[in-house]
Design a protein that fits this description.
The structure is a homodimer. Chain A is about 40% helix and about 30% strand. By secondary structure, chain A is of the alpha/beta class. The first copy, chain A, has two domains: about 170 residues, 3-Layer(aba) Sandwich (Molybdenum Cofactor Biosythetic Enzyme, Chain A), CATH 3.40.980; about 80 residues, Alpha-Beta Plaits. The first copy, chain A, is elongated and about 70 Å long. Chain A starts with a strand and ends with a strand. At the A-B interface, helix 1, helix 2, strand 2, helix 3 and helix 8 of A face helix 1, helix 2, strand 2, helix 3 and helix 8 of B.
Chain lengths: ~260, ~260
């Protein structure tokens, strides 16, 4: 099965110099996977226009179906995301009246002035659809360029999630026919390398499934076995692979402990 | 000042599907920045040989001075890092006796057999230097290719950090003449967009410094102002920019609270 591909791009020096831990990428990656996309790359790039334009031109040549960009939407001088998208797509930035209304409303509610810096956030690539931000000042937008869907989102996690959950998730859910079936379980009391031969064997018999061990799960230690497949026909296979592996492990590592992970 | 450039590459589907939050990239990015490198990109890629080889060939064309790769060193079928480095550099994988000794020692201490999967970890690119791993089974290595330093590290954070701190940090400290001077402080009680005009003004007067606001610091909320510069001559400027901004903020936002962040 060939899944539509996606790339995640996170803009901001803070991600490259270690000030910020990139939780946005894992949030977006998990959602896109669930929605039936194959996330091919996550890239963090600097707040520099020329380097970023060069990066996006390369990315567009790879033609992912979907591009989610977060970070660099806002009022400060290094909030360059939309300038970069504009330069790399050659879609001009135009003041969008809907975006301007949202920005005005956001600041007037807070008794703050509409400065030049804030007004800048209403300039979005021509033809783009505004996605309102109910948490912060910078609206997101949806750009369609050469059949790629590009979503431009702020980098502040609460704002990014707000726009993602209200605008992007429901739209993509309708777009994509695939559904992910997955099972995860945790095993403690043996080494990841001891499990490898069993995983390799089952992998040969089910090449269409994704079967992998990870030494941790979201910061929690203990080896996690993750089995997934796309399409309704795969559900039964996913479950039987889980059962085969659990039986193998119980038989060969009687002192290990197996625990299910709920989604 | 032109800093040597670096790229960080994290290999592993778990990073793309949201199972793992990429704390390795922020650890490495922070250290490299401190060591005087400009981290240009962080890229997470899938455990797929062809896609990864294509990625590394592009990367090598950008000629960063330094490449740190983490993830995909180990005994399982998807631990493809060294195969990918070998294919993209055309340096053959050869069984390295030093690496083999370390692997044998690691497993015999734990009363585990030297399986075929474990022995695989002793194959490293020809000419590479082995970097012993004191926490896990997979040794790292240091490859020099077309004047680029490539460090191959495991993805398990404790193992990656062990090798980074003992082998890479001291080596790079000696290599690079630059030193980073930085100050960070936190301000609460005003909006990031209110601070923007003051930061923009000081930025014009000190274009050689990096001056930026971030809405959070390693998960902690409150706007962080980060000022940094390289080379001894910049230390005084960094401190005076901090004082200028703190005075501006105190004068204009008397109800805000300013707090220093210690390194």
């Amino acid at each position: 099965m060939i899944l539509p591909t996606a790339e995640i791009v996170c803009l901001g020096n803070e991600l490259l110099i270690g000030i910020t831990i990139n939780t946005n990428a894992s949030f977006i990656g998990e959602k896109l996977t669930e929605l039936g996309y194959e996330v091919r790359r996550v890239t963090c790039i600097r707040d520099e226009v020329d380097l970023s334009v060069e990066f996006f031109k390369e990315l567009f040549k790879r033609k992912p179906k979907l591009v989610i960009v977060s970070g660099g939407l806002g009022p400060t001088y290094d909030d360059i995301q939309l300038k970069v998208i504009s330069k790399s797509t050659e879609l001009e930035l135009q003041e969008n009246s809907e975006a301007l209304e949202q920005i005005k409303k956001y600041y007037s509610k807070r008794d703050l002035k509409l400065t030049k810096e804030r007004r800048k956030m209403a300039f979005i690539p021509e033809g783009a659809k505004v996605l309102d931000n109910q948490v912060g000042g910078a609206p997101g937008c949806h750009v369609v360029y050469k059949e790629m869907d590009i979503y431009c989102l702020p980098g502040v996690p609460t704002e990014m999630k707000d726009i993602f959950n209200r605008h992007i998730f429901p739209y993509l859910r309708k777009q994509n026919e695939y559904q992910l079936f997955q099972r995860k379980f945790q095993i403690t009391g043996c080494a990841e390398s001891e499990l490898a031969p069993f995983i390799n064997e089952v992998k040969i018999n089910f090449p269409e499934l994704y079967i992998k061990s990870h030494p941790e799960y979201k910061g929690e230690s203990g080896i996690v076995i993750h089995i997934s497949g796309y399409g309704e026909s795969e559900e039964k296979k996913v479950v039987s692979v889980m059962e085969i592996l659990q039986n193998d492990f119980r038989r060969n590592f009687p002192h290990s402990e197996i625990k299910a992970i709920k989604e």
